[in-house]
Give the backbone structure.
Amino acid sequence: MNFYHVKRHRVNSLDYAQPIPAIIDSLDENIIYRDDIYDREPLGNEWGKGYTTLIGDASHPVQPNLGQGGCMAIEDAFELVKYLVIGQAKGEEIPTSLRQFEQSRSSRVAKVFTVSRQVGQLAQTDSAFGCWLRDSIYRLTPTWLGDLQFKWLFDYQPKLPDSDLMSPSK
Ligand SMILES: Cc1cc2nc3c(=O)[nH]c(=O)nc-3n(C[C@H](O)[C@H](O)[C@H](O)COP(=O)(O)OP(=O)(O)OC[C@H]3O[C@@H](n4cnc5c(N)ncnc54)[C@H](O)[C@@H]3O)c2cc1C
């Protein structure tokens, strides 16, 4: 946020209940730190080469509209280890396991990226009609429908490999 944004928030928050205007009034523009947030189009089915792969924001940065960037990094870590263990048990080369890992993650991270951008566009709209539409959608959507809409996201369960593949003796 910079001086311009603080001024704009002061104007926009005139009708807000206290303490919002008081908080914004008390801001010292000179010590405000601004750090923009970027996402990046998904990299497809492969994002590494040879013995190198990426996980987390390095491979699929999203805007924090769904609160899923950190979760996806944790999912990546689990899946990466899984494919390395399976690959080792099958006697596969490590690069093969890394490409399998990337392929296994590509559709989910692309879907999270797409939905996150859509939610962001809706949430950050600033036209009068857009705000009215967004607020109406949020107000009228029953909780169960919202939960159902994001079931694919929050009910995600990583698949465990066959237990004999995980056995250290294999
Ligand atoms: C405002 C905001 C809110 C968010 N809210 C949520 C949320 O509610 N839930 C959620 O799941 N996610 C959320 N996220 C996303 C989440 O923070 C990121 O997706 C997550 O931190 C990515 O983890 P990472 O390990 O891939 O990358 P990072 O957390 O960015 O870690 C990378 C690390 O590498 C270090 N590094 C960089 N370059 C080098 C180098 N050359 N040498 C050594 N070290 C280096 C960096 O300093 C950093 O510590 C939010 C993000 C933002 C910005």
